[in-house]
Description:
Elements: H1 14-25, H2 29-37, H3 43-49, E1 61-69, E2 72-79, H4 85-96, E3 101-105, E4 109-117, H5 123-129, H6 131-139, H7 143-147, E5 151-161, E6 164-172, H8 179-197, E7 200-207, E8 214-221, H9 229-244, H10 246-266, H11 271-282, E9 291-295, E10 301-308, H12 322-331, H13 336-359, H14 364-378, H15 384-396, H16 401-416
Antiparallel strand pairs: 1-2, 3-8, 4-6, 4-7, 5-6, 8-10, 9-10
Amino acid sequence: xxxxxxxxxxxxxxxxxxxxxxxxxxxxxxxxxxxxxxxxxxxxxxxxxxxxxxxxxxxxxxxxxxxxxxxxxxxxxxxxxxxxxxxxxxxxxxxxxxxxxxxxxxxxxxxxxxxxxxxxxxxxxxxxxxxxxxxxxxxxxxxxxxxxxxxxxxxxxxxxxxxxxxxxxxxxxxxxxxxxxxxxxxxxxxxxxxxxxxxxxxxxxxxxxxxxxxxxxxxxxxxxxxxxxxxxxxxxxxxxxxxxxxxxxxxxxxxxxxxxxxxxxxxxxxxxxxxxxxxxxxxxxxxxxxxxxxxxxxxxxxxxxxxxxxxxxxxxxxxxxxxxxxxxxxxxxxxxxxxxxxxxxxxxxxxxxxxxxxxxxxxxxxxxxxxxxxxxxxxxxxxxxxxxxxxxxxxxxxxxxxxxxxxxxxxxxxxxx
Length: 417
Ligand code: MEV
């Protein structure tokens, strides 16, 4: 039976981890080789991705283990520079087993906005009357999308001020993030909208507040699995803090996005778009936490998350970047909705991990080991010296460069003897 529960995964050498992931996700030899040897995006590919390329920059790709999402065992690829995030997600997923996370996502409907200046007085009504012709013109721009069941589905319009209106084109973008399809359609229908409204179009662009493309997840942490009802109460209080205080809510949501962004980056998705959508959604009624945590009638902890997630499994660099392609294969998601469900679940797990640590032993304890290892590397430690220097600093309770250097000098002096 396939399982994402892999005890000791963190202690294995990279080659062994890759072997396990290969077997789990049925990767081929080539993909295994890519994971083991990928050190940089070839410059000719990078040069075609953005302008003025002079080099590339890498991030570590980690695997969060233990996830069960909608009854399916899953390994989660996460690209991130921050220590402890992958470990925290894996621990949170472990505590949620065997039931794990239940998630769902809506159809992938994005909004294209067409800004109209100086429209006629009855412009909104006229747009509603000509809805079908606007949709038809939009759909002429992307026959493939329409053949896949996507395309423009609806039109909305409203006055923003006396002399400005906005028209929303609602587009089902299927498995793409959707910016290209939506922007092309918005530009194409703008002249028709000008004619209908007697106004002048200005901006024609997707909205990142993807309010019609929502993902939700929920989880129940049994009180026994997380240290008892006292811990449940502390986590509920931690959530209440975020719901009452915007300064805390920002950090609470940052923790959520640690998980979501790391998957977005690993799969080649536009994480700035997802961030913009998440935070603007969180602000709809005054900035609020993206998750809720309550104690249920059994005294267990019930967590929920709901946010817009505009992520795709085709388009952009999802099928261009070698690691993005493999990350999608590791996830085994079939469409954009499933990817959004995974992201929402991992965001919820990441948030649980953060407030669990914060409301019990504090966040620094978990950060210490990798932080100490980073300081050891910065002090010049190599190979096995890194672990020795890090361990000694933790024992001394002093994780600082000068201390690392002293320990390193000591180790090297003793070696010479
Ligand atoms: C750090 O990257 C994220 C946390 O600050 C999130 C939180 O405070 O909930 C730990």
